[in-house]
Amino acid sequence: MNGSKRSKATHYSEKPLVKWNATDFGRYLADEHERILGIPYVTRSIAAERKLIKLMAEEYGPQTVKTFIDRFLAEYRPTAQYPGTTFFFAYSYVRERLLPQILAEQKRQEAQKQAEDNAMTMEEIEAWL
């Protein structure tokens, strides 16, 4: 043993989403790609994709990135020429359409949750009256 106290990396499924980093999202993407499309995930540049994932996570948050990955994989229709897809492709060509939808849905959900949190219960109304 070399005296290193470094622990083994934790699998993304064992971490809360807010703790995921670009590598975790990349592994999630590869796992989901294989599960949904039935073929291994292949990309030209893992480093370039990780950078895009990191930028997206920093700007919009981890829940948005996960939702984006889930949506673009669910909507992707394989062809003989392109049986798989990549995050780079989705970021470049699908983001413009999907991201505004995702952000609008998240905004609606946050507003609904805030309204529910601010709503008075019948007991509170009766006590107030």
> How many β strands by DSSP?
0
Content-based structural category: mainly alpha
Low-confidence stretches: none
Total helical elements: 5
| Main β-sheet description | none
> Radius of gyration, rounded?
20 Å
Shape: elongated
Secondary-structure element order, as H and E?
HHHHH
* Average pLDDT score: 91
Report, as a whole number of angstroms, the end-to-end distance. Answer: 71 Å
Content of β-strand: under 5%
Range of helix content: 55-70%
Structural notes for this entry:
There is one protein chain. The chain is an all-alpha fold. It has a domain at 12-96. It contains five helices and no strands. The chain has helices at 22-37, 46-60, 62-75, 87-118, 122-128. α2 crosses α3 (62-75). It starts with 21 loop residues before the first helix and ends with a helix. The model has no long low-confidence stretch (mean pLDDT 91).
Set out the fold topology.
Layout: H1 22-37, H2 46-60, H3 62-75, H4 87-118, H5 122-128
Helix pairs in contact: 1-2, 1-3, 2-3, 3-4
Outline:
This protein is mainly α and 129 residues long. The chain has a domain at 12-96. It is built from 5 helices and no strands.
Keywords:
single chain; mainly alpha; 129 residues
